[in-house]
Amino acid sequence: MAEIKVVVGNIVEAQVDGIVVNLFEGVTRPGGATGAVDRALGGEISRLIDKGYFKGKLNETFIIPTFGRIPADHVLVVGLGKASEFNLDRVRQVSATAAKALRRVGCKKIATIVHGAGIGGLEPAAAARALAEGTLMGLYRFDKYLTRPEDTDTGRLDEVLVVEFDAAKVPTLAEGVEQGRIIAEAVNFTRDLVNEPANVLTPTEMANRAREMAARYGLECEVLDREQLESLGMGAFLAVAAGSAQPPKLIVLKYWGADRSEAPIAFIGKGITFDTGGISIKPAQGMEEMKTDMSGAAAVLGAMQAVARLKPRVNVIGLAGCTENMPSGTATRPGDIVRAMNGTTIEIINTDAEGRLVLADCVCYARKLGARAIVDLATLTGACVVALGKVASGAFASNPELLGKVKAAAEAAGEKVWELPLFEEYRQQLKSDCADIKNVGGREAGAITAAYFIRVFAEDTPWVHLDIAGTARADKDQPYIPKGGTGVGVRTLVELALREAGRS
Ligand code: BES
Ligand code: ZN
Ligand code: ZN
């Protein structure tokens, strides 16, 4: 991953391959650093604006070759959009857009100003954090399996200098950049897990990577295997694992940032390393996408990594319930009845509604560990994608206060969530003739009945569920979200942990 450093100086003089300056839409005479670069280029940026070649629209770019007028070979002007609409997420976007555009023309080392800290009116540390987040998330690529040079030789950007004129501001900016780097590295760690194919990323491999990460950043890590899940009575989790040759793993990560007597908050992730549907098998079309059905678990591992590095004063437990969902002679059948850890019996109507079964036992386990609040993340339902598309994650809650905190954290982190209701009436749809509950509630309100199922196991522990089925995988490139695993949820969970500790 590229290095980011904050340095004092004048960006016009930076000894780099390319420099990044910016412009708000509608500004005709650039000021600040952009103005200084404009003057060094004999007014070329102003002329681009006058001619209408550059309007400053959000994420618009224009690259000017400097031909020796300044040390850098390229000046990239990036549009910030309307000043009245400017915010931290736009800093993430334009930082990513600029870094990618300069990488495309072969720059290895670039320098940038902090977007938005001047006339943008943003807090310098927050703007610097967003700049680092956007740059490093935007530069992410998953290319480890591309072996032909013509596919991989698309440039590498090694170093980003954040240039600040005022030396007094440097420590604040450096702190923001450091936070942003930690968060972006956690998101990219999560994306690597999500993008990895299921033949490589088995539950066992996921546990290995979690152990390695935990050892590196000083988290407690325990991995429960099949026998331990049996002893705990996790019949719902095990029912999903029954058809697979790969053994299931429940990954437990613990971060102690506060006194050990303080009850932890728990993050739980659905970790189906491949979802075939089981005996209720899915159609072939698009089934390869089900390698990303462990995105919730991957987000929890990423969030725990960032928490371990940022060290907020709060206790956090991360649980990742990992298994494949496969059909075989040992697989669970529709009609089977199993018993979850808390004794609740479940009639399995459809083996493709497996995520809620795994989460049910994980939620019981989080309660046993003494969690005071639970947030789970899961690529749970196609119905949620129908409702909200790929724009927002669905949010469901048993507790309005915790939901408020999750919503506020998501908003600050630049991740969209939207609440769907859990009215009591929906519980009827989960009534079974022969067990306490069944695992599907029919076609209507599919995302809600799935969430309701998990809620039953959370009992009186404040609980929020995020359905990330639509947001965990991008099918097109966006400024700081490349096609593929998005790492959604990491930033929200980290922000929530920071806020719980009174930091952010
Ligand atoms: N992993 C899927 C949900 C999913 C669908 C995630 C599309 C990402 C994109 C989940 O396990 C599933 O198969 N859900 C079923 C539930 C149904 C059988 C009640 C669904 O949504 O169709
Ligand atoms: Zn499924
Ligand atoms: Zn699934």
Number of beta-strand segments: 19
Instruction: Based on Cα principal axes, name the global outline.
Output: elongated
Major sheet details = 8 strands, mixed
> What percentage of amino acids are in beta strands?
15-25%
- Strand order across the biggest sheet? 7-8-10-9-13-17-14-15
Query: Please, how many helices?
Result: 15
pLDDT under 50 segments (min length 5)? none
Distance between the termini: 24 Å
Rg: 24 Å
Query: Helix fraction?
Result: 25-40%
What binds here, in terms of ligands, is: ligand BES, zinc ion
Overall average residue pLDDT: 97
Structural class, from secondary structure content? alpha/beta
What can be said about this structure in brief?
The protein is of the alpha/beta class.
What do you see in this structure?
This protein has 15 helices and 19 strands. The chain has helices at residues 32-40, 44-51, 88-104, 124-138, 149-152, 170-195, 203-217, 226-231, 235-241, 295-310, 355-368, 382-388, 400-413, 446-458, 490-500; strands at 3-8, 18-23, 61-65, 74-79, 109-112, 159-164, 220-224, 249-256, 265-275, 315-325, 337-339, 345-347, 373-378, 393-397, 417-419, 437-438, 463-467, 473-474, 484-485. The mean pLDDT is 97. One zinc ion is lined by residues 275, 277, 352, 354.
Name the features.
504 residues, alpha/beta, binds zinc ion, 15 helices, binds ligand BES, 6-stranded mixed beta sheet, 19 strands
Topology:
Blueprint: E1 3-8, E2 18-23, H1 32-40, H2 44-51, E3 61-65, E4 74-79, H3 88-104, E5 109-112, H4 124-138, H5 149-152, E6 159-164, H6 170-195, H7 203-217, E7 220-224, H8 226-231, H9 235-241, E8 249-256, E9 265-275, H10 295-310, E10 315-325, E11 337-339, E12 345-347, H11 355-368, E13 373-378, H12 382-388, E14 393-397, H13 400-413, E15 417-419, E16 437-438, H14 446-458, E17 463-467, E18 473-474, E19 484-485, H15 490-500
Parallel strand pairs: 1-6, 2-4, 2-5, 5-6, 9-10, 9-13, 12-16, 13-17, 14-15
Antiparallel strand pairs: 3-4, 7-8, 8-10, 11-12, 14-17, 18-19
Helix pairs in contact: 3-4, 4-6, 6-10, 7-10, 9-11, 10-15, 11-14, 13-15
This protein binds ligand BES and zinc ion (ZN) (2 copies).
The site of one zinc ion (ZN) has 4 residues, from loops.
